[in-house]
């Protein structure tokens, strides 16, 4: 199962829409994972219409309409991979420990908020993934997103893509 992992799209504040490269990945993905900060309900509805499957949460910049439609924490099992999704995980220091305690029943945790790509594994085996942002790079050198493969209870081929450079 091919996954597209995105977060912090901030549409229409930071972009009119998803970059074409990310839109093409939506079409290829079996599931799209979005870790919040949509900002606009229309962007959620567009992705719901285009994605085969969407696993998503709201973020701190998402208003009442989005919060009414999305959970703070989402969980899904994709090809045997137990996935959790949340927008914020707090400061980087101690993140693996905190997340392992809170999401110890998951194999992987997708989060956003910082716009800083992140890929680490907690001592309990929990994989923590932040795809950065495809539309608002902040202090990062590139706009980014991730892809991965879920199969036989394993997450593999996790790749960070820099928009326009891959």
Produce the secondary structure layout.
Elements: E1 2-6, H1 20-28, E2 31-34, H2 41-50, E3 54-56, H3 64-69, E4 73-78, E5 81-86, H4 95-102, E6 108-110, E7 118-121, E8 127-130, E9 144-151, E10 154-162
Entry summary:
The protein has 166 residues and is α/β, with parallel strands linked by helices.
Features:
single chain; alpha/beta; 5-stranded mixed beta sheet; 10 strands; 31% strand; globular
The multimeric state of the shown protein is single chain
Query: Average pLDDT value?
Result: 95
Order of strands, widest sheet: 3-2-1-9-10
Structurally, the number of domains stands at: 1
CATH topology: Purple Acid Phosphatase, chain A, domain 2
Enzyme class: hydrolase
Domain Calcineurin-like phosphoesterase: 1-151
Family: Belongs to the metallophosphoesterase superfamily. YfcE family.
EC number: 3.1.4.-
